[in-house]
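Thread: Newbie trying to understand structure tokens

Hi all, I'm a second-year student working on a class project, and my supervisor (Dr. K.) asked me to get a predicted structure for one chain before our next meeting. I've only ever worked with sequences, so writing a 3D structure as a token string is new to me. If someone could post the tokens and maybe explain what I'm looking at, I'd be very grateful. Here's the chain:
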Amino acid sequence: MAEADFTSCFNCKYFLGNDLGSCRRFPTYQNRHANEWCGEWAMKIIPLMDAPQIEVKRGRPRVAK
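---
Reply by user tm_fold:
Sure, no problem. This is what the structure looks like when written as tokens:
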């Protein structure tokens, strides 16, 4: 379960409903909105790619004659 990407109740397998629904995770069902997130499930973290290195030239620019 930890590798799943749960970012809201709507994506959770324990949520039943559309916008308003019920969380069926525990024996006592709770009313929830689809945009809520209980925080119990970890979000998948996608690593960022390394940014390209930019060459920085120091000093004054040469004046064209």
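A couple of things are worth pointing out once you decode it. The two ends are 68 Å apart (CA to CA). The chain has a mean pLDDT of 76. Feel free to ask follow-ups in this thread.
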